[in-house]
Write a structure and sequence with these properties.
Elements lengths: L1 H15 L35 E6 L4 H14 L6 E6 L5 H7 L7 E5 L3 H6 L9 H7 L2 H6 L1 E2 L2 E2 L2 E7 L2 E5 L11 H11 L2 E4 L4 H4 L1 H5 L4 E5 L2 E4 L4 H17 L4 E3 L3 H8 L5 E6 L4 H8 L3 E4 L3 E4 L2 E4 L2 E10 L6 H11 L2 H11 L12 H4 L2 H10 L2 E3 L8 H11 L7 H15 L3
Parallel strand pairs: 1-2, 1-3, 8-11, 8-12, 16-17
Antiparallel strand pairs: 3-16, 4-5, 6-16, 7-12, 7-13, 9-10, 14-15
Helix pairs in contact: 1-16, 10-18, 11-12, 17-18
Length: 425
C-alpha cells in the first residue's frame, strides 16, 4: 500500500509540472462584494441562519451526496439549514447554470472540462477557505482551478480519466499491453472492442499519441503546441488501419456499451476504454475476470508508442450569485473534505484529490484506480480547453474508422479541418 501511495503522489507531482493555466476572466463573487478572501477557515464562516441550499449531484453519487448533506445539517443544527439535492450531470452543469444562474444550484459538482465556461461567465465564487483547501489537495487539482492566484473551485476527485478495462477470459494481461494484442484477442473470441471514438474526451487520444498537445486559451482561442504534423498524421493512420483491419469487432459507441456487453450472456464485449464512473458496474459484471490496465501501446511505423489520454478532475463549485454564500461555501468545503472523499471512494470508487485520503484501502485496493493513476503519467491534463475543442475532435475520431480514411492525405486534411474548427478560424 505504501508503494502505491508513493506512486500516486509522485504521479500527481509530476503531472502538476505539465499543467497549462486555464483561460477566462475571474470576476469574483458578483453578488457579494463583502465576502471573505481565501484565507478564511471553513469553520470560521458565519453561516446564514435558515439558509436554503440547492445542490446538484451526479446521478451515481446522489445517494451519498444526500447523506453527506444530512451530516452537514446535523453538524450545524443550530443554523436550521434546508438542503435539496437534485441530479444534474457533471458534463452539463455549466450549460444548465448559465441558462439561469439565479435558479441554478448554490453548490454543484462539475467536470474540469466545464471550468473554462464557468470562469468566462464569472459564475464561480472564489473559494473562501482556499488556504486550507490547497493544503489538503493534490497540487495539480488546485492549479487547474486557480486563476490569477485565486482558487475558483473545490477539488473533489483526481481520477477523471480513463484506462483499459478487459475481460481476462478473453484478453490476457500480456495482450493488454498493446492495442494490437487487445484487438487480436477480441477477434479470436468473436467479441467487440469499444471506444467512444465520436466523443472528443476519448478521441483526442489519437492525435495526442502523435504529439499534439493543448496549450491553454489565449484571447478565447485554443492554443496548441508546436507539433510535428507528419508524426500526428502517421499516428492517426496507424489507429485508422487497425480500426479497418478489425472492423468486424471494433465498435465506436458510448462507454456504457462496454458494461452492457460485459453483462450479456455470453459476453459480447471483450474490452474497452472506460472510466471510473463505470468501474463498479464493470467489476460486478466480470467478477474474477475483471482486468484493468493503463492504455496500451500502438505500433506506428515500427515504433511502439504509448497511447496518451486526457486526464481531468471533478470539482464542486459555488454559484457566484448564491443568496447564502457562507452556507454554500461551508457545505462545498464539507463535501470535499478528507472524510467525504473517503466515503465517496468507498461508495462509487472515485479517487480522492485529498492527498491523505489516497492511502485509504478503498483507493489502494482498486485495480481500475491504480490503472488510471498509472495512465496519468501518460496524459495531457484537462486544463485550458476551449468549448470549441470537443465537437471537431469527436468528428476526427469518427473519421478514422470510416471507409474513406484510408490514406495519409485524407487524414491530414481531416486533422487540419479539426484544428481550424477548434480555433474557430
Amino acid at each position: 500500500m505504501k508503494k502505491f501511495v508513493a506512486l500516486v503522489l509522485a504521479v500527481l507531482m509530476m503531472a502538476s509540472v505539465l499543467v497549462a493555466c486555464g483561460g477566462g476572466n475571474n470576476g469574483g463573487n458578483a453578488g457579494n462584494t463583502d465576502t471573505p478572501k481565501g484565507d478564511t477557515p471553513a469553520e470560521s464562516l458565519e453561516i446564514e441562519n435558515g439558509a436554503k441550499l440547492l445542490v446538484w449531484s451526479a446521478d451515481k453519487a446522489v445517494d451519498l451526496t444526500k447523506k453527506l448533506c444530512e451530516d452537514f445539517k446535523a453538524a450545524n443544527a443550530d443554523k436550521n439549514i434546508e438542503i435539496e439535492v437534485q441530479v444534474q450531470g457533471e458534463d452539463a452543469a455549466a450549460t444548465q447554470l448559465l441558462k439561469d444562474p439565479d435558479a441554478a444550484a448554490d453548490v454543484f459538482s462539475f467536470a474540469s472540462d466545464q471550468l473554462s465556461r464557468l470562469l468566462k461567465a464569472d459564475s464561480l465564487a472564489p473559494v473562501f477557505s482556499a488556504k486550507d483547501v490547497i493544503a489538503r489537495n493534490s497540487e495539480d487539482s488546485v492549479t487547474v482551478a486557480t486563476v490569477d492566484g485565486e482558487l475558483m473551485a473545490f477539488p473533489e476527485t483526481c481520477d477523471n480519466g480513463y484506462c483499459l478495462i478487459y475481460d481476462k477470459s478473453v484478453v490476457s494481461d500480456e495482450q493488454a499491453k498493446t492495442l494490437e494484442g487487445v484487438l487480436e484477442a477480441c477477434k479470436a473470441a468473436g467479441v467487440k472492442f469499444v471506444i467512444d471514438a465520436g466523443n472528443g474526451f476519448y478521441s483526442c487520444m489519437f492525435p495526442f499519441t502523435g504529439g499534439l498537445k493543448i496549450d491553454g486559451i489565449k484571447d478565447d482561442v485554443q492554443q496548441f503546441n508546436d507539433y510535428n504534423e507528419d508524426e500526428v498524421v502517421a499516428t492517426l493512420k496507424a489507429f485508422s488501419d487497425l480500426f479497418h483491419k478489425y472492423s468486424d469487432i471494433f465498435m465506436s459507441s458510448e462507454d456504457s456499451r462496454i458494461n452492457a456487453g460485459f453483462q450479456e450472456t455470453p459476453h459480447t464485449v471483450g474490452a474497452g476504454i472506460d472510466g471510473p464512473w463505470n468501474v463498479t458496474a464493470d467489476l460486478a459484471a466480470l467478477g474474477d475476470n475483471f482486468g484493468a490496465a493503463k492504455l496500451p501501446t500502438i505500433n506506428v511505423k515500427g515504433e511502439d508508442k504509448q497511447i496518451i489520454s486526457l486526464h481531468g478532475f471533478k470539482y464542486i463549485g459555488v454559484n457566484a450569485v448564491s443568496k447564502y454564500p457562507y452556507a454554500a461555501q461551508a457545505l462545498a468545503d464539507f463535501l470535499t473534505n478528507k472524510q467525504s472523499q473517503v466515503e465517496r471512494a468507498k461508495a462509487v470508487a472515485w479517487a480522492p484529490s485529498n492527498t491523505e485520503a489516497l492511502s485509504d484501502p478503498a483507493v489502494t485496493e482498486n485495480a481500475a484506480l491504480s490503472a488510471i493513476f498509472e495512465q496519468k503519467q501518460y496524459s495531457v491534463l484537462q486544463s485550458g480547453i476551449a468549448e470549441t475543442f470537443w465537437t471537431p475532435m469527436g468528428a476526427l475520431g469518427n473519421y478514422l474508422w470510416q471507409e474513406s480514411a484510408n490514406d495519409e492525405a485524407s487524414i491530414k486534411a481531416q486533422l487540419e479541418k479539426a484544428i481550424m474548427l477548434i480555433k474557430d478560424e
